[in-house]
Amino acid sequence: xxxxxxxxxxxxxxxxIITLPGHSLVAQSIEADECKTTTNAxxxxxxxYNERPEPGLFRDVYPAWSDPNLRSxxxxxxxxxxxxxxxxxxxxxxxxxxxxxxxxxxxxxMHNGQVGGFEQVRKAADMAIPDDYYGFRRGSTDSExxxxxxxxxxxxxxxxxxxxxxxxxxxxxxxxxxxxxxMRLSAAISDGTTLYAYRYSSDSIAPSVYYRHSxxxxxxxxxxxxxxxxxxxxxxxxxxxxxxxxxxxxxxxDFVPDC
Length: 259
Prior knowledge:
Radius of gyration: 17 Å
Number of helices: 7
CATH architecture: 4-Layer Sandwich
């Protein structure tokens, strides 16, 4: 399992989410509260949107807490939309290409969870990626496949329906293996304009997702765990829901994969 944090709103420094809060993402990489693995040390990444439609991307394989470059970038870079992630591998190797977030054109994606028996169906999953997006496949994770499948299903026009179809396809493949849970999912995705978050599980245990508007930051944070322990105002995204955030609004809709 992994931990992640995303933001949309008035531009802020990345460190306001990644390193400065008492239970920041870097703090969660050392001691997570709501995760099967307390430590998330198998790499990190951050994607941000600024002057160009395509995101900037910085990823590496070191533990987030030990990389001075991450702290330097987070201290200097300001953005109105960004996604950040610390990784605990569920089986795929530790490499830069397997670190989240993943990027394709103007889209970025990160995921916490798993697809049951993925190694047994990875070839079939890879072959399901449309040709237009297979060139973006760099690593070996189930998460990257999920992202590229969703793009192929029309993520740009239907962020809910496309992700429902992509999740459904991987659940169908997982069922062939008999390995459970077939899907556990908390994920965030953005095109630089809107931030979407999803929470779903094929069993009764869905990875945590919280969101909160901060007047001091003038924006929304969406996270695996609240950025301050015992801080009020955090709302839990219910399982089977999708959250769509702009700078002004938060809309929650049903998320029901086709499986």
